[in-house]
Amino acid sequence: MRFRVLILAVVAVFVTGLGLPAPAGADAARQASVQAAAPDWAPFTAYTVGTVVSYNGVEYRCLQTHTSMPGWEPATTPVLWQPVTVLPVPANVRVTGATSSSLSLAWDASGDTVTGYRIYEGGTQRAQVTTTTATISDLGKCETHKYTIKTYNGNGESAGRDVRATTMDCTLVSWVVYAPYTAGTVVVHNGVTYQCLQNHTSLPGWEPPNVPSLWERVRPWEPSTAYNAGTVVTYNGVTYQGLRNHTSAPGQEPEGDPALWQRVTRSDDVEPSFPANLRVTGTTSGSVSLAWDASTDDVRLAGYEVYRGNTLVAAVPDTSYTDSGLAASTTYTYMLRARDAAGNRSDAAWVTATTAAPAPGQPGTAWATANNTSVTLTWGASSGTVTGYRIYEGGTQRAQVTTTTATVSGLGKCETHKYTIKAYNVSGESAGREVSATTTGCTSPNPNPSRLPGAPYLYMGSGNPPNPGTVMVNTGIKSFTMAYIQATGGCNPAWDGLRPLTGGIDASAINTIRSMGGSVGISFGGWSGDKLGPYCPNPPAFAQAVQKVIDALHPAVVDFDIENADEFENYTVQDRILNGLKIVRQNNPNVKITITIPTLRTGLNPAGIRLVNQAKALGAPIDNYTIMAFDFGGIDMYQDTVNASEGLKSSLKSVFGWSDAEAYAHMGISGMNGTSDWGETTTPAQWTQIRDWAKTKGLTRLTFWAVNRDQPGWQFTQITAGF
Questions:
Q1: Staple partner for 387: which of 50, 238, 269, 425, CB 3.0–4.6 Å?
Q2: Which residues form a coiled coil (predicted)?
Q3: Which CATH class is domain 279-354?
């Protein structure tokens, strides 16, 4: 028996949870389950006030906290225990009347142990009475309500008995999507009548036959059936609502008995007013925002339907909408209609809108010129629709122009500034292009120059030159040293003394590097060939030849590879180059100047020491002295490179009076990957050691000869990228 009672209790809870009527025995089963769950009374047990126990088949509630003893059984100690009386559940709960704003309920009396009755809707108490009737008022038309009636006294409440009823004056509307519905609403869908079970807003796919939890089909009228006031039925294709409680009989069909039934008519066949002043309130590259004036309806406005072309894109309750996910620079046509709850639609309003262009592309390669008080920036034009350009320094905007050049004024002498150039239009700003510049008027070299990016040599003249874009993607390298500029026809610059400065494979490689956000330095000279130093007759001519390269290619760094007897060991040419570099710096204060020279394993040879001393004496603006740490009889290439660098440091400290840190900051290392001309071998592991030592000491340049020799795999290039 206990097993069966528990099964009934579970069924009752499950069914009630679905919002369906519980079986007739469910309430009694629920209370029986409580009784069966009470533990048996036992002696020598601690009990607290309110504890319920079972003794000889009767339940008792504890009145005082105590520990039980033999002879203190509940039946014999009324001071400690009180019998528990199970309250009866209200019987024969029924609807006795319905109006458009109220529902009347009744039930049979439940006996002398009952103080009164409480009526609940969900978890909310709607009424409390001592009689067996109650009327719930202030309701809306055609609303379905589910009430639970419980008896109560000083010991608590009984289980509940449910009843459902619908207020009068239902009207019939067509089911539409995106409309709010309340429980009790009567709709027609595909010629079938349904009644709403739960408040909700309809969505596509929620048509009444698809969602039985939201809608139930209205049943046809039948004779010999008990009907409550408010019940909705169909008869011969017409919908009716009961006016009072009765049991139907032949001859009392709804169409012929107006005292018992009221016809449910269509509520609305008038369309809403036209949604005036449809307008575009904003556009971006991917969206259009619309707004319009509110429509009115004689019964109830449900909302608005927005179409893009012939496609419904939204049904909204308010007077604005933003259509997103659109293509840039594209014209769209929109149609708008107001819709009421009956499915009537207004006349259509139309408007067209064009999305904005996307944000511009990143500005092209930028370079700078400067004087004592200002910096002039120039850059390549951005792609796309460009309104103008903004120049930022950090988070501060310094200028805004519509051309591809701008001057930032009011600066001090020998100041370094880093600018970011961004194109903009109505859709926003592009990615930035950075460029650094230093005003003129410096009285001495920068004591702490910034570190240059690792930039291995790339030689396009021969040696199976790789595509620099492929190298960048596979190694992370961002900068290259392009080799070599030499003399042609006297004091004229050309790649290898043969290829034009622009329009050839060298300029194409530079364009590829810059298009991927990289930078380039250009190296002059080399081991062999005709060099500008010997062929240019004087410092101004040398500087003019260098200037032709800078004007044509806009390098971030110019490197002078001074080797061999024609330049390095020819002191007249040494001085010509050093004096020419003074003019180069004067005309190009933002271009870094480096020299690359041979070394011994212990430091500079006499020609190298002489060059450093002359740079000091002549005031040559050298930003970085780089030693070629190969072809010097190396044995342990890491240790020999460190020793040679320490020798260079000693020379720089002696000549310029610099500290260790200042000397290191003006130093660089140029290696040769793999095996050198003299048979020395530098391994990737040793090159990694050299790189890390250079970073630790604060050296500001690292390069090697050459990317061409670093195939396949580009191991040395990857290591150098980490500088």
A1: 425
A2: none
A3: mainly beta
